Structures are given as C-alpha cells and as structure tokens.
Amino acid sequence: MASPFYLWQASRLHCHPLSCQRPPRRRVLACVLAGALWALALPVTATEPIPGHSLESIRTWVLEHNPELRAMGLETQAAEARILPAGALPDPMASMGFRGLDPGSPWRTVGAEREINYAVRQRFPLWGKRDLARTAASQDAVAIGLDRVTATRGLLSDAEAAYARYWHADQAIDVLDRRIALLRQIEEIAGVRYALGRAAQQDAIRAQVEQTTLQRERIERLAAKQEAAATLNAVLGRRSDAPLAAPDEAPHLAVRSASLAEALDAADTHPAVRSQQARAEAARTNVVLQRRNRFPDITVGVGAMQLGNGIQSTELMLEVEIPFQQRARRERERESRLLEEAALARRDATLRAVEERGASAWSQWTSARERRQLIQNTLLPQADATWQSALASYQVGEVDFGTLLEALNEWQGADLARVDALRDELLGAAAVRAIEGDIR
User: What is the pLDDT of residue 14?
Assistant: First the structure.
C-alpha cells in the first residue's frame, strides 16, 4: 500500500487541469500591486506635447506655461489680498501697569498690596477713511490685473510673430530647394546639348555656379530658422534649444477690423489705457483720503485697576488726535494731487502710443497683403509663363542659356518674394490683433 506522502506527491503531479491553472495568491497580489504602481506612474512619465505644429499649440503653451504670465497672475492675487487689510481696523493695544513699586526692588511693593492697571485701547478711523483706503487698494488691484491682460496680449502677439518667422524659414528653404532642383535639371539639359555640340560648356558651369550661390543663401536661411526657433522658445518660456514640432500648415491670423479707424476705436478700451485710468482713479481716491486726514481719529479704551486680589475701579477712555502737523498734511495732499495728474498724463501717453502702434501695424499689414496678392495673382503666373516659354525655346536652340537662367530666377524669385510678403502680412496682422484684443 502506498504511503500518504507518495499519494500527496502524485496528486501534485497529476492535479486537475482547472486546479493547476489557478495561480497562487501571492502571485495575484504581486500582479495587482505592480499594476497599481504602473497606473500611478503614468501621469509622471507622460511627456507633454511639443508645441510648434500649429499656431493654436503656441497660443495654448503661452497661456499655460509662460513664467511671466504666471508671475503677474500671482502679483494680481497679491494685490487682491491687500484690499481687505487696507480698510481694516488697526490692531487694538493692551497695556498693564504697576504702581507702588519699590525703586530699589521693582519686584516688590512699598505697601502691603500691589496696584495693577489694565487697559485696552482701539483706534477708530472716522470720516469714511477706511472705505476710501479699501477703494484705492481695489483700484490698484484692477490696474495690476489689467497689466497682466496687456502682457498677455503682447506675449501672444510676439508668439504669433515668432511662429510666423519660424514657418517662413521653412517655406523659404523649400523654395530654395525647389530652385536648386530645377537648376540641376537645366544643368543636365545643358550637358546633353553640349554633348551634341549645340551649346557651350559654359552653360553647365554657369548652372553649377548658380547652385553654389543658392546653397550659400540656403545656409543663411537655415541660420534664420534657428534664430526664429530660439526666439519662439524664449516667448514660450522654454530653453532656447528646446525642440519644436514642424509646422503642419500656414498660420492664419484674421483681422476683424474693416478699416484703420475701426481698429483704432479699440484703443480707448485697450487694457494698457484702462490700467492707467484705474491708477488715475486710485490717485484721485488718495487725494480725497488725504483731505479726510485733516479730521482727527478717535481712540476708545477701557481699563480696570486691581488692588490686591480684587478690582477696585474701572475706567473708560476717549482719545482724540490733535492735527498739529498741518504743513506735513498739506504736502501729502499736494503729493496725491501731483500723482493724480501724472497718472492722467500717463494714460494719455499710453493711448497715443497704442494708436501709433495700431496705425503702424495696420500700414504694414495692408501693404504686405497688397504686395502678396499682386505677386500671387499677377507676377507669379507671368513669371511661370516666361519660364515655360524660355525652357521650350532653349531646348530647340532658339534662346541662349542666359535667357533661360534669367527666366528661372524671375519665376522662383517671385515665389520667394510671395513667401516674404506673406511673412510681413502675418507680422502686421499679429500686431493689429494685439490692438484689437483678439487673444484666442
């Protein structure tokens, strides 16, 4: 008869299929724990998308990651936190005095019992001074918040302009590459015609010289692209050598205004102008507050006198400030009036500066748009037709190589001029949008 140990070993080797497939409890717990840790690590290891593939990705990155906007947001919150303390009552004062002390031993009393006086005093600003101080702090907070809106507009405009230059560098390099490829083709044509004795060898050499010249220009365009990428990263608040995604399509910057006058109508509501207006209102409030300081405040106090272990008497105190320092008060009033006038003058200067930027941006945008439309609708078709005609004529020997090369340069030069004009149009549109307030 088999032993119990042998039967147990046999049951392990020939167990039921379902029971053999059941994993041990420790293995299940380990798998669950590993899965939970992996799920927790997912948000940490996930990388943020690289900006640059579209203009919207640039705007989103500026609004969410720019350190300057984050700092100004914190400053706005700090200014809002100053509103409540500005109109709060000052902290009360508590005092405790001892009488009847021995001059030689201050910790001992002369008589049998020590006299102790307790007092609590609270100063009350009157005549609406607390409300005025709170209003001035609120107006300062509004001004700081509007400064952040102004900075947001400026940074978004700078980001759109930098992205336009970044996109333009790629487009310019593509035009040069296409032009170099066409030069190689006509170099081959010139070589075939030279082999047949129908053209001079100088044609092929001239095509090679032209390619070398374009390669030099291509190097300059690549350097401009790197500079544009560094500028764009600086606006985004990233390292200058941080990677950027390649643009998917041409940026589109729409201008809402139909005329310059309509665009300048938004100058009065520009946040920079409104910020200076809020500061002027705060200065005006301070003028009223300084005038109210001519009237004295009061201090109310209560006290008690302890003799031995009992309260012997209580007292009620009323204190009034005596406005002796009239000259100092007049100077503070004069200071507040001058600050109000300075804030109003600065508001006018800011308005004129906004209008000047708007007029300059509008001129740049309209001029570049007209130039781009002329090149795209008229010059490019004409240059293309000239190139096709010159190429066909050169292949049959009706024109020389110089005419063919000139036609190619005019055609591709017009295409490069179109790209440059589109860049200028985008730069002008970004500046106009900053005046209009389109930060979407």
Answer: 44
